[in-house]
């Protein structure tokens, strides 16, 4: 899967989610699945695992239902 295709798929997924809390559970599962199948995401996760602190920056007003929350969960998941 090309990087551009994966990026496009994630953009479509985020657009579909549109920070709707009712869609968060499905969004989270689909977002993690996309990350799991993306070799670049896996490489980034491995590189970041060598750092004691990784800062995720986001602009969503909802601090519980956003892609940074999902990304944090994915990064913390055992490799």
Topology readout:
Blueprint: H1 3-17, H2 24-36, H3 39-48, H4 67-76
Helix pairs in contact: 1-2, 2-4
Sum this structure up briefly.
The protein is built from four helices and no strands. With 79 residues, the protein is mainly alpha-helical.
Summarize the structure in words.
- It contains 4 helices and no strands.
- The protein has 79 residues and is mainly alpha-helical.
- Helix 1 (3-17) runs antiparallel to helix 2.
- The mean pLDDT is 89.
Structural class: mainly alpha
Supply the number of helical segments.
4
Q: What's the Cα radius of gyration?
A: 13 Å
| Backbone shape | globular
Q: Return residue spans where pLDDT drops below 50 for at least 5 consecutive residues.
A: none
Average pLDDT for all residues: 89
One letter per element, helices H and strands E, the order comes to HHHH
Question: Using DSSP, what is the number of strands?
Answer: 0
- What oligomeric arrangement do these chains adopt? single chain
Indicate the proportion of strand residues.
under 5%
How far apart the termini lie comes to 21 Å
> Helix amount, in percent?
55-70%
Give the key terms:
4 helices; single chain; 79 residues; 0% strand; mainly alpha
